[in-house]
Amino acid sequence: MNPNEAIARKCLSYLTAAGATQGVCVASVGTKTEFYYESGSLGLLRTVRNVTVSVKALVGTRKGVSSVNSFEEEDLKRAAEEAVSGAKISKEDPAEGLPEEITVQSFEKGPMVPDPEAMLLRMTEFFDELRERYPAVSVDSASLDHTLAESVYCATNGICLTTRQGAYSFSPMFMCREGEHTSSFNYFGAVFDAPTTPVIDLAGGRGIIEDSLKQINPAPLSGKFVGDVIFTPACFAGLLGSVEGNFLSDSVLIDGTSIWKDHLGKRVAAPCFTWSSRPRAEELTGGYFTTEGYVAEDMDIIKDGVLQNFVLGRYASKKTGLKRSPSGGGCYFVEGGTESLEEMIASVSHGLLVARFSGGDPTSDGTVSGVAKNSFEIKNGKIVGGVSEAMISGNLAKMLTDITSLSKERINDGTCVLPWVKINGITISGK
Amino acid sequence: MFDDSFSSFSGFSAPTELRRQCNRSRRVALLNGDVIANSRAEQRGINARVFREGRCGFASSPEVDVSAAERILKQASQNAKFLADRLPSAGTALDLRERISHRDLWREDSVPQKDILDFLSQIDDYVKKIPHVVSRRVNCSCLSLEKELITDDGVYGYSFLPRSNIAIVLTALAPDGAPVELYQVLGGSGLFSDHFSDPSLLFASIDSIAEQLMQKRDGVFADAGQKTCIIAPELSGMLAHEAVGHTAEADFVISGSVAGTCRGQEVASSIVTLTDFANTFDGKVLPTPIYIDDEGVQAKDAVLIDQGILTGWMHNRSSAARYGDAPTGNALAFSFADEPLIRMRNTAILPGKNTLDEMISSIDDGYYFTATGNGQADSTGEFMFGVTMGYEIKNGKLGRAIRDTTVSGVAFDVLKTVDMISDQMVWLNAGMCGKKQPFPVGMGGPHVKCRINVGGK
Chain B contact for A364, CB < 8 A? Predict the structure, then answer.
């Protein structure tokens, strides 16, 4: 038996002994090896190991949760007892329970052991290339790490899901300087299986760096107009996260504040927009199991502009009467279009190419505004230069219906695959 | 509370820090009366950081016994050697000043989880009677960081940093059917029992949130453009932390932040003084009181802007040595698995001489922004804050409430437009700063009158 499974099963027995009628235990071991650059130096090699035991106890339909980062007998007992005592003082909630499907499966993916020599090579190669080809780039921090996550989900009804997953991850944060002029900071991130490719070429990183170099001395935007905005894939990922949180997720459907709560099967986006969640995609480092103990399945969220699925867990499903989402969320794919990015830019009469959106949290109805960072002004189909102090405002739901085109080029950062997205009718204002 | 098994550690062969840490957290949350979270968690472990030729090795383990400490000391040494053997010497020294030993007082969090749940249920019972509220959330989160530090040069530090907050989130429907939300976070530094002894003591705050929500429900959208505005302590604190503070963290200065280029220069109106306080201001203990940092340095106030002049930065031992500045004790780590980073503690603009009424009456056409949801800034000092509550100011008087908007600007440009600052300040303790690791921070300030960009329709 997997050692983590033995821990989880032992914990389940403590749960039952303490009075739980049902229970779940997730026992995990995580190890991380990280090379970290900051303050102008590749100065840190960090090795981190942690264990976590998360326990959920149900006493009837009352729930309590506890977690400790120890596999010691007395800590496991204490966690189980805390979870059960928490459940006993909680409120009855018929929506609580365990997954009905009893699954016993194992899943392994990715590199299990880090290659420190290769990691160091990739980091030094990255900084060597910056020095030689992009000397105006100043890196604030950069991390290249390898993580191995081993976990077991066990429930009292017989579910046992074992995961062993390794992955590398690279994320630099940088700015560009020339004399007294400094660009906004910028970043990119990539998750990948092997340190065989120069990290600057992952997730469109080179293009992001080269764009930042053109934004060292941006001009403040003047005036106010309604125009087109092209969002880069990384920026659009953030907007999709807000769409999920505001319209599709558990809490907004339970409390009924989602403006899409009655929109399943209805048009919520432009017909050219298809968005799916694919945790089983080979090219992504997704999870094979959901955190609730189900085998994750790929699903469409919006297909040809029509809402197909919420991103809803079991509890929220029971609470709302809506169907549980099979994917567990994340691992986004958005279908590309037929135009190139260049053609999309050429079609804009006045607008922005936005690489980063620094905005307030969208309101419940999706109203959002914020600063367009690391962005370019587009006039008459041409990029005229970097802009600063440009604010954009709109509504998330309306933005999706106002999508006019998606690029045929897409970026895969290891967590999602997205195109550039052009949206019209966005209010753009400057000083 | 830790046992004394680590106090005898000595004989480190290189500059070394050995830290034992335990983070404890609790979360109870009600959504429309249902218990959606009811959890306790503990994360404990030890770490070692070893320096060698300007590089450092770090290792951590969830086991906290002496043999685990010996194991991670060895691993950290090997990590430092790995870098030192393969890279040229970085040669950066560590500042040797302001080394102290210090011990905070530990206090046991003895409130049963049931009492917290009962407390929230009573709050929820009160909230659900408020007319027009269509959704309500009442969340409690408690977090404490307990740390013990031993270093090669004999420093011993023990710190205990608890905080307890209750957040109340209310949603109503606007006349156009759009959901409108407002929230407030109560509580602060200390244990649950320090702040929440009687639910009825919170009812006045809840009434105030409800009243503002009803105003916001009927609110108007702000006009986009640059306006003269008054920003309340929530926003002036955010300005101090996000837009100025981060640019004055020495690691950010090294990589090229705007504050690195204008030390000694005028960056704000002469009535602006801005400080990152270590632990105490005006005789009162602040929301995130730090007496010794995670490198064993005595925490000192870092004056960033003094009467409009940028005077200093926040440091760890390495950056203090690099710039020849006195160390400020700003090196802090969130968990046992984290290395210390240069972090803010309690950052604020200091009070001025005006009353809020004087400030409002001085504006013909502008806004009074009272609450914020989030904020971001970058290396240039350009910032954005979400505004979740505010009012128009017309002809020197408060007007209609506004719906959510954002404000933005370039920090040093905005601070140069400041012409009035209120004589009262408020400290806030709900912020978690994100910079590789999270960290609980305090921020606050007075009301500040300035010119700022407003996002709107």
Answer: yes
